[in-house]
Specification:
The complex is a heterodimer. Chain A has one domain: Ferritin (Up-down Bundle), CATH 1.20.1260.10. Helices cover 74% and strands 3% of the residues of chain A. Chain A has 4 helices and 2 strands. In chain A, helix 3 packs antiparallel against helix 4. The longest helix of chain A is centred in the middle third of the chain and has 32 residues. By secondary structure, chain B is an alpha/beta fold. Chain B has 2 domains: 273 residues, Aldehyde Dehydrogenase, Chain A, domain 1 (3-Layer(aba) Sandwich); 189 residues, Aldehyde Dehydrogenase, Chain A, domain 2 (3-Layer(aba) Sandwich), CATH 3.40.309. Chain B has a 7-stranded mixed sheet with strand order 16-18-19-14-13-21-22, with helices on both faces. In chain B, helix 2 packs antiparallel against helix 4, helix 2 packs across helix 8 and helix 3 runs antiparallel to helix 8. The longest helix of chain B has 20 residues. The chains are: A mainly alpha, B alpha/beta. Chains A and B meet through helix 1 and helix 2 of A and helix 4 and helix 11 of B.
């Protein structure tokens, strides 16, 4: 499904971050050895939502006056957050890495499409995309 | 995408807010407020009586002496509290606007934000209202100017921005120490009621801010009332001219913002990729019900290939616009605010066809996303081959209709723009600074866009307008608003 409006893209980012937070909370419950690492990632997911919504609600008028519209395919960013009961911690980490890479691509695309307008929104999208690099390093270190 | 939750669950009869009390109108005439997308009745609004308007004016007049003596900083604190409450209620206010007007949720959020920005700017009143002075205009004599509030001001609101437009004026009126009466549009008055609830919660004293519902009769009482010092109005030029005349007769100050017919001039050197989306929101945002909407698209140059390719890109984008209920986040264009509005726009389309324009995109039978009655819905329409004499090129349609015209060069394009009886928000799209400057310099327009499709001034700049788009001297918003809502008093002093 193609997303065109700012409201849709903000809603999608909220859904992705919430799904990510739930996923990491589940990992923390299943694999307590790395529980604090996972919970820290979940907390950051929730902070991201606040940061994005604050930026959006602050500059929404710019989107209107600038004729801003997205063209993002929601289907490309479906997150693999379902875990079977027998999933090993290595498989779960691999799933987390796949999820983070997808989210990094989503934010990079959203930042690129909003680049010329809504200054605060692309800045936040780009920041969150960059954060994903750090999160990926953490997850890869856990997997190693 | 799912439909966002509707904040209005049942239709209640709206009350007036007079002297800090919510008062039921005694009027037997009550109109339904209809959600234009669903056609459900979401409120009932009374056509208040003359006595009720009189009561509001009396309350506002009685509240004035204390309010003007309240220090500007204390008045600003009330506005700061209001700003916080508006932020807390941001989403609810926005969804109400979508329900009462039909605009998309992004558009409603933009409107809410713009309204809040007015309050934010008005909180700077201790600095904004300062006068000036000069020592020794003659030896031992000093002279200074002070700005003082005048008394009661009234506002007659339009339907197209039911929440924001009254806020172009009221925060500045209140901050400067005046009292205020709003008559919301009876078509979509609910967000003004919610705003008044927040004004009350913010702690403004009784009588400082009042809301009286109604139609032409309420407006007429406000206009004629000797205790009202000034009026602000946004609406059609025909009514605006009458209001300005009436204000002149009764010695009132007036800011009267009227109709528009805005030209979007596209030069061959324009950045097409960036221009098309800007034009989409200009022509079709708010379903074209905006005094800053694009109406006539002027493609400049003798090069047929540029004309054709630009028009195709414009058409392709317009045809893709998703029409439906604004609380569905995927929707890019909501319904017209009323069935009357839809009928009026359809009438203009018929007129365009009859006068020989070519309808290359017909929005009269739109594909509506979701299961909604088509009572108020229209899709984007585009006419080609429009000439300046045609009705659709001259009159304000106030709907999602673009009239495409050609001009050989910039001079011809500017002449076209200046031939209009209106001068509200005209724009040029170009990558040439020289073209842009020439356009800005010569065009008769109160607001000018350079690569901007909707030339809406921010709260700290005046909202301009020329020719039949504006009647008055000082404009709403910014420093103009501070001057409009105050009288300058000159003091010359010598101590003996």
């Amino acid at each position: 499904m193609g997303l065109n409006t700012a409201s849709e893209v903000i809603s999608l980012s909220r859904q992705l971050e919430e799904a990510g937070a739930r996923f990491y909370e589940e990992l923390a419950r299943r694999y307590p050895a790395h529980g604090e690492d996972f919970l820290s990632l979940a907390r950051e997911n929730k902070k991201n939502i606040v940061q994005i919504e604050r930026a959006y609600y602050g500059v929404i008028t710019d989107a209107l006056e600038g004729g801003f519209a997205f063209n993002i395919s929601q289907d490309e960013y479906a997150l693999p957050t379902e875990l079977a009961p027998e999933t090993s911690s290595e498989e779960a980490l691999a799933r987390a890495i796949e999820m983070e890479e997808k989210m990094r691509r989503f934010y990079a695309e959203a930042a690129e499409q909003s680049r010329s307008l809504m200054a605060d929104v692309p800045r936040v999208f780009a920041q969150i995309a960059r954060k994903r690099d750090g999160r990926l390093s953490t997850l890869k270190a856990l997997l190693a | 995408m799912a439909i966002l939750e509707e904040p209005i669950k049942e239709a209640i009869t709206l009350k007036n807010y007079i002297n800090g009390e919510w008062v039921e109108s005694k009027s037997s005439e009550v109109w339904d407020v209809i959600n234009p997308a669903t056609q459900k009745v979401i409120a009932r609004v009374p056509m208040s009586t003359r006595d009720e308007v009189e009561a509001a004016v009396r309350a506002a007049k009685d509240a004035f002496p204390d309010w003007r003596r309240t220090p500007p900083l204390a008045r600003a604190r009330c506005l700061f509290r209001l700003k916080e409450l508006l932020e807390e209620n941001f989403e609810r206010l926005s969804r109400i606007q979508t329900m009462e007007h039909g605009k998309t949720i992004d558009e409603s959020r933009g409107e809410t934000r713009r309204g809040i920005e007015m309050v934010e700017v008005a909180t700077g009143i201790p600095s904004l209202m300062m006068g000036y002075n000069l020592e020794d205009i003659a030896t031992g004599i000093d002279e200074y100017v002070i700005y003082q509030p005048l008394g009661v001001f009234g506002h007659i609101a339009p339907f197209n921005f039911p929440f924001m437009v009254p806020l172009w004026y009221s925060p500045f009126a209140l901050a400067t120490g005046n009292t205020f009466i709003v008559k919301p549009s009876p078509r979509d008055p609910i967000s003004q009621v919610k705003l008044a609830e927040l004004v009350e919660e913010a702690g403004f004293p009784p009588g400082v801010y009042n809301v009286v519902h109604g139609g032409a009769e309420v407006a007429s009482v406000l206009l004629e009332h000797p205790d009202i010092k000034g009026m602000t109005f946004v609406g059609t030029s025909k009514i605006g001219r009458e209001i300005y005349k009436k204000c002149g007769e009764t010695g009132k100050r007036a800011i009267v913002q009227g109709a528009a017919k805005n030209f979007m001039v596209v030069m061959p050197d324009a950045n097409v990729e960036a221009t098309i989306p800007a034009l989409m929101t200009s022509f079709f945002g708010n379903t074209g019900q905006r005094c800053l909407s694009g109406a006539n698209l002027v493609i400049v140059g003798k090069d047929d290939s540029f004309y054709q390719s630009f028009l195709e890109a414009f058409l392709e984008a317009a045809a893709k616009i998703k029409v439906g209920y604004g609380l569905d986040e995927s929707i890019q264009m909501g319904p017209m605010q009323s069935a009357d509005g839809k009928q009026r726009v359809s009438g203009y389309i018929e007129r365009g066809l009859a006068e020989g324009a070519k309808l290359i995109l017909d929005g009269r039978k739109p594909n509506i996303i979701g299961d909604y009655p088509d009572t108020c819905f229209l899709g984007p329409s585009v006419f080609e081959g429009v000439t300046p004499e045609m009705t659709i090129a001259r009159e304000e349609i106030f709907g999602p209709v673009a009239s495409v015209m050609r001009a050989a060069d910039l001079d011809e394009a500017i002449d076209l723009v200046n031939s209009s009886q209106y001068g509200n928000g005209n724009a040029i799209f170009t990558s040439s600074g020289k073209n842009a400057r020439e356009f800005q310099y010569r065009v008769e327009s109160g607001n000018v866009g350079i690569n901007i499709g909707i030339v809406a001034p921010m709260a700290f700049f005046p909202f301009g307008g020329m020719k039949d788009s504006f009647f008055g001297v000082l404009h709403g918003q910014g420093r103009d608003a501070i001057r409009f809502f105050t009288e300058s008093k000159v003091v010359i002093q010598r101590w003996l």
